[in-house]
Amino acid sequence: MPSPLAQNLSHVEERLERALHRCGRRREEITLLAVTKVFPASAIEEAYALGLREFGENYVQEFETKHPAVSHLAGARFHLIGHLQSNKSRRAAELFHVVQTVDTPKLARRLDEASRERGVTLEVMIEVKLSEEESKAGAGTATLPALIDAIGGCPNLRLAGLMTMPPWSDDPEQSRPYFRRLRELAGAHGLTQLSMGMSHDFEAAIEEGATCIRVGTALFGRRVKRAT
Ligand SMILES: *Cc1c(COP(=O)(O)O)cnc(C)c1O
After folding, report:
1. Contact by Cβ (8 Å): 197, 179
2. Which amino acid residue places its CA nearest to atom 4 of ligand 1?
3. Which of 67, 133, 156, 177 could form a disulfide with 116 if both were Cys (CB 3.0 to 4.6 A apart)?
4. Backbone phi, then psi, for 113, in 5-degree steps?
């Protein structure tokens, strides 16, 4: 019997294939980012054993505790997909290969400084806020050009593209206009990578040009909130 994760993964791959088929895209164009927040390091190891190599985590502190158990996994890459406070940027630059949630010039400069000290180039994406929800992190579209310029002035950062998270809705069609808007913005700025789409709406994201889908629940099951 395949494990629950193996079964979930093949189901996700089937959904992915159908979406790719509808829009004539190829599997190699898409990075399946396994979102392992709240799950233990063993979930990362199990996913790695099934061939997954790209992992998304939301919190610097949480990943810090898992990192020793997974840092030896050859070829594994870890992406920070949760909001980053600039006082944690140094640690983030040490732990992650990609920071998808850069949203201010200040944060970019901090990450650049930390990467320079380590003698590495850090891959970053800009999290774009496309809705008016107060609680959402991300750069507003009006501040995007200045932020892109600021990152361009950071020699130790490499800007790969844009990331977004639409307002929550059960209906994936509600996400589609946000995905489309992100693609237009990226195109206008000559950026090629688009991180968009989660468990419930990644088909629409693929159809709108996603190059990275961030999938948690559909792979690992529902997250139970930890008592803190
Ligand atoms: C948790 C999370 C995901 C994964 O969400 P699922 O609905 O579990 O697939 C994707 N992106 C971000 C930014 C997240 O915080």
Report:
1. yes
2. 216
3. 156
4. -60, -45
Residue 226 and residue 228: Cα distance in Å, rounded? 6
58 lines ligand 1 (CB under 6 A): yes
Helix, strand, coil percent values for the chain (each to nearest 5): 45, 20, 35
Mean pLDDT throughout 214-220? Answer: 98
pLDDT one-digit tens code per residue, 160-209: 999 999 999 999 999 999 999 999 999 999 999 999 999 999 999 999 99
Closest CA to 27 of 36, 37, 17: 17
Residue 132 has pLDDT above 70, yes or no: yes
Asked: is 4-220 a CATH 3.90.1150.10 domain? The reply is: no
User: Residue 152: is its pLDDT beyond 60?
Assistant: yes
Query: What is d(CA 133, CA 224) in angstroms, rounded to the nearest whole number?
Result: 25
Tokens representing 220? 């690992």
Nearest to 163 by CA among 147, 133, 131, 186: 186
Distance 35 CA to ligand 1 centre (A): 6
| pLDDT computed for residue 226 by the predictor | 57
If you measure from the C-alpha of residue 201 to the centroid of ligand 1, how many angstroms do you get, rounded to a whole number? Answer: 11
Helix, strand or coil, per DSSP, at residue 55: strand
| HSE-CB for 138 with a 13 A CA cutoff | 21
Average pLDDT, the chain: 96
162 lines ligand 1 (CB under 6 A): no
